[in-house]
Design a protein that fits this description.
By secondary structure, this protein is α/β, with parallel strands linked by helices. The protein is built from 10 helices and 14 strands. It has a 4-stranded parallel sheet, sandwiched between helices. The protein has a 4-stranded mixed sheet with strand order 5-14-9-12. A two-stranded parallel sheet has the order 1-2. α2 packs parallel to α4, α6 packs across α10 and α8 packs across α10. The radius of gyration is 19 Å and the shape is globular.
Length: 323
């Protein structure tokens, strides 16, 4: 697992550990946390380092790579595109070359709904034309293309999972979203509730949406993690390479989410209205039938209040026991 000490990778790791899978994590710990891997072997280093990755693949006799490691902040990608093409696209190219050299032929790839850009009607389908509007989305799409083209001329098989807006934390409170200076809305709002931030900003109030704020499809981290386990099972059954959306097929506006946080927390937020950010589409919601059909995946935690509650409990724990 690359990036397995980060937010999404560590939650997937928990589910793999519960199944008794033998795992190893490569993470440079720039945004990940050593304590998040919970006993799994951790190799500190960069996924683009072919010598290091090759050594890990040999020593642990790896048969499948789950590739999470990436830079993920949309506004930062606009201001520093070279970082994103290097950390995301370039590193993925090096990783896949090393996988081919060491006979690793199964890959589960962490991609993003940002590859869609601004889809017509705000609904994103896997088979629609792609048009990312920021370097983050473009860097991920280029990585998808590398996977696709490599699989076309080799025996590599992959599942690419396009995430929508991930939120929530482990229901048992063992791990959660702990990244400093996080930009995910529910995380930011919960930090404001516990006093780590003075306010929450709404970036854009004049979108063509019911209340003028952006609409997103929020998926609980536990459901997203289970999608990775289902993808692994698909590959082990000999399943064909595929690209799948990970979302609930309905969205909430920024204002609706903030009202939900206030409702769950029982207290008001200080909210500021700011101009739109570069690279943000007005509406982005998953059409997510394909993952149900191909993997047999079904949502179990499709409830905004449940997502917020798990996030808030984690923020309160971090307030008492900082990572």
């Amino acid at each position: 697992m690359t990036g397995g000490a980060g937010y999404i990778g560590s939650h997937v790791l928990l589910q793999l550990q519960a199944r008794g899978e033998r795992t190893v994590v490569i993470d440079n710990l720039y945004t990940g946390f050593r304590q998040a891997v919970l006993g799994t072997p951790l190799v500190v280093g960069d996924v683009g380092d072919r010598e290091l990755v090759g050594r890990v693949l040999r020593e642990y006799d790896v048969d499948t790579v789950m590739h999470f490691a990436a830079s993920t902040i949309v506004p930062e990608s606009v201001s520093d595109p070279l970082k994103y093409y290097g950390n995301n696209t370039g590193a993925t190219r090096n990783l896949l070359e090393t996988c081919m050299q060491h006979s690793v032929r199964q890959v589960v790839f962490s991609s993003t709904a940002a590859v869609y850009g601004i889809p017509a009607g705000g609904i994103a389908r896997e088979d629609m034309p792609l048009g990312p509007i920021n370097p983050y989305g473009t860097s991920k799409l280029m990585s998808e293309w590398i996977l696709r083209d490599l699989a076309a001329v080799s025996d590599l098989r992959y599942v690419t999972l396009r995430y929508f807006n991930v939120a929530g934390s482990d229901p048992q409170g063992r791990i959660g979203q702990s990244t400093a200076k996080a930009t995910l809305l529910i995380k930011v709002a919960c930090e404001a509730i516990v006093g780590k931030r003075p306010h929450v900003s709404i970036f854009g109030t004049d979108y063509d949406t019911p209340d003028g704020t952006g609409v997103r499809d929020y998926i609980h981290i536990e459901d997203l993690s289970r999608a990775h386990v289902d993808a692994l099972d698909h590959l082990r059954r000999g399943g064909a390479s595929t690209v799948l959306n990970c979302g609930y097929s309905h969205g909430y506006s920024v204002r609706e989410v903030l009202k939900g946080v206030e409702r769950v927390a029982g207290q008001a937020l200080v909210i500021r209205e700011e101009p739109r950010r570069d690279g943000d589409p007005p509406v982005l919601v998953a059409e997510a039938q394909r993952i149900r059909t191909q993997l047999g995946w079904t949502p179990r935690l499709d409830d905004l209040d449940a997502i917020i509650d798990s996030s808030l409990r984690w923020e309160r724990k971090l307030r008492q026991e900082p990572w």
